[in-house]
Design a protein that fits this description.
The protein is α+β, with helices and mostly antiparallel strands and 236 residues long. The longest helix has 28 residues. The radius of gyration is 23 Å and the shape is elongated.
Length: 236
């Protein structure tokens, strides 16, 4: 591609981004556009296809470490770091956006969808299974997220007594349970159901409501309340 054609193509790509936005681009075109800023003269379309194919997918490339990208794509560490930074910045943005929503959205925990969308952000960068409680006050406003356990939920002991102690400590009126399934399976296991029932019964003794239990996998979630595993306590 001549320099004139090369510059014209880049100009058209940028103008398309300005006028049509990100949804107008395929994944490899987005990477091509990004690579304009590290390769001033090269055909980045070809490179974008090469890098994505090397990792078997757009998301796999951006989840890789800088060292992995450098070794497998044959690029400098600076280029690899640039590519690797994207997902970290995106995750930081999502966490920051979610924390802002906690402060300003009074209704965040008053529906299954808004609660689930927030809770997904807790597990955004988690590769192991983790179990949290989300403490809420009587107005369903957020108090605190507390990690209760890490590892496999079927292989660790989530102590109902500790859940109650933490809920009392932070003066929670209600709590939401949440854990992730890195395997991709959203359906609750037998252990998930038994843990939920045991914790609910323990909370009832001290008059603290169990509002829901969410299972998160990737960008999806399963709600015990929405699936009638727990009586709905959300506001309509």
């Amino acid at each position: 591609m001549s320099n004139k054609l090369h510059e014209g193509h880049r100009g058209r790509m940028k103008e398309r981004f300005y006028t049509e936005g990100i949804d107008a681009f395929d994944n490899h075109q987005l990477l091509e556009l990004m690579l304009f800023y590290v390769y001033p003269q090269r055909d980045t379309n070809e490179l974008a296809h090469k890098y994505i194919n090397e990792f078997g997918g757009f998301e796999n490339l951006f989840d890789a470490t800088a060292q992995e990208i450098q070794a497998r794509c044959g690029v400098t560490l600076n280029v690899a770091t640039y590519i690797s930074l994207i997902s970290h910045i995106a995750k930081r943005y999502i966490h920051s956006r979610a924390n802002t929503d906690l402060r300003v959205n009074k209704d965040l925990f008053k529906s299954v969808n808004s609660a689930g969308n927030y809770i997904k952000t807790i597990f955004l960068d988690k590769v192991d299974e983790e179990f949290y409680i989300i403490c809420l006050n009587a107005q369903r406003r957020h108090i605190r997220n507390i990690q209760m356990a890490a590892g496999s939920i079927s292989g660790i002991d989530v102590s109902p007594r500790r859940v109650v102690e933490e809920a009392i400590k932070f003066r929670a009126s209600g709590i939401i349970l949440a854990h992730n399934h890195p395997s991709g399976e959203l359906k609750p296991s037998k252990a998930d159901v038994e843990t939920t029932i045991t914790i609910r019964n323990a909370l009832e003794v001290v008059e603290i409501e169990l509002l829901d239990h969410f299972i998160v996998s990737g960008d999806k979630f399963y709600s015990f309340t929405a699936n009638k595993r727990i009586s709905s306590l959300y506001e309509n």
